Amino acid sequence: MSELKSLISGVVLEPGDPGFVEEVSGFNLAVAHSPELVVGAASAADIVAAVRYAADNDLPVRVMATGHGDHAAVTDGILITTRRMDAVAVDAQSRVATIAAGARWEAVVAAAAPHGLAPVTGSAPSVGAVGYLLGGGLGPLARSHGFSSDYLLGASVVTASGEIVDASPEGDADLYWGLRGGKGGLGIVTEARVRLVAIPELYAGSLTFDTPHVEAVLRGWLDWTTTAPAEVSTSAFVVRFPDLEFLPPHLRGRFLVTVRFAYPGSAAEGERLAAPLRALAPVETDALGPMALADVGLIHADPTDPVPSWGWGALLGPLDQDFVSVLTEQFHPTAPVPFLGVELRHLGGAAARETDAGSAVGGRDAAFAIHVLGAPDPSLFAEVLPQAAAGFANAVRAWLAPVTNIHFISHVPTAEEFATAWPAPTLSRLTELRRRVDPDGRFPYGPH
Predict the structure, then answer these.
(1) What residue spans define the domains of the chain?
(2) What value, to the nearest 5°, has the Cα angle with vertex 94 and ends 64 and 200?
(3) In this structure, are residues 371 and 339 in contact, taking their beta carbons and an 8 Å threshold?
């Protein structure tokens, strides 16, 4: 290991070393990593050195930026953390952001906003941009702007042989295709180049309704989505807050529904488009209005501090009122299931259109996405929540889409579940691509 340390400008730690636990800790506090070595990379050269060392010593390599997507503990090989590689550069003239491996979306948003530009980002600003891009990414502007990976122009990638290659239409075009939605097992991205979009105005935020109106709002919102303009992205989040002291008093023990709304256009037109949603029921909290690009994270208001988390997700086909009946039977103020919330995202629009160059994204044909958030109690994660989610999934099976997206498989998948993350031809091409770029399985990914 001393040889590796001499090549690394960041840090190299073993279990028991001071700082090891902090270095391997990610956003999901329920996952405790314990690799044989952790390399805190500070540069692309550090990643190259770590991968070559792994090849020489026949060690598997995994990578973590923020750990938002962690579902299984790393217990062997080398874990490369990239949080030190957080640089973001914006070329306003070409509308391109260059994003280092460990940068979070909030840094990209902040760098682009002064130029009247924005990345097509995820809903949570604290998520690592690169890992999110590799899985596709359905954010708060999904219907107006599509998958986030559609805006990936190219990337610098460390391959299993320890070489840096250019994955782009001009470079390794097949690898570029795979990085736009194929997620893992393709190498380690050290830098991504992303096209930014001009959004002169944004009308966005949320409307929250109290318990007596939850079902009526869900039914009204679902009806509204049937004629919603493609420029408007919305979601509905039904949440049951526990009666705990750390929550604000006005939220403790309450059952609410929040409708999120994002329209990249004028306030006047945004108000007109949102009027039917405001009229669904008495609005308890109206946080919908003109929004600065730098505040896009407020639309979903996802947690920013690390927490233990467990979820189940899937993509859905067209929904009807029978679906709402099933949902409200399964999840209501006194339901015995240990769920914190259920979110539905309206898809379609630009998300349904494939890019000119093609991509490995799974789930473009879906009409909605669903995510069930479990109570943040790790004692429930192994058995109670999976069993409850399995029952919920069975209840809504008539509406499940045949193909989901890898980001919505929020647990360690079986081989059958993993195969549903892409259409069969896409999965076949990804499998062959992984064999080409990583013939020895240096970057383990998927069921084994």
Answers:
(1) 2-81, 88-199, 203-419
(2) 90
(3) no
CATH number of 2-81: 3.30.43.10
Q: How far apart are CA 333 and CA 345, in angstroms?
A: 21
How far is Cα 365 from Cα 12, in angstroms, rounded to an integer?
Answer: 44
> Quick check: pTM over 0.85?
yes
State how far the Cα of 237 lies from the Cα of 341, in Å rounded to an integer. Answer: 7
Q: What pLDDT sits at residue 307? A: 87
Q: 203-419 has which CATH code?
A: 3.40.462.20
Per-residue pLDDT averaged across 99-106, rounded? 97
Query: Per CATH, which fold does 88-199 belong to?
Result: 3.30.465
Confidence of residue 253 (pLDDT cuts 50, 70, 90): confident
Round to whole Å and give the CA distance between 393 and 400: 8
Q: Are strands 61-64 and 78-81 parallel, antiparallel or unpaired?
A: parallel
Is a pLDDT exceeding 80 seen at residue 151?
yes
**Mean of pLDDT values over 400-422:** 90
Using a pLDDT cut of 70, give the percent of the chain over it: 99
Asked whether the predicted pLDDT for residue 349 surpasses 70, the reply is yes
Confidence category of residue 185, pLDDT binned at 50, 70, 90: very high
Q: Which two tokens stand for residue 119?
A: 């990345």
- Note the pLDDT of residue 448: 60
Is pLDDT of 251 > 90? Answer: no
Mean pLDDT over each residue of the chain, to the nearest integer: 95
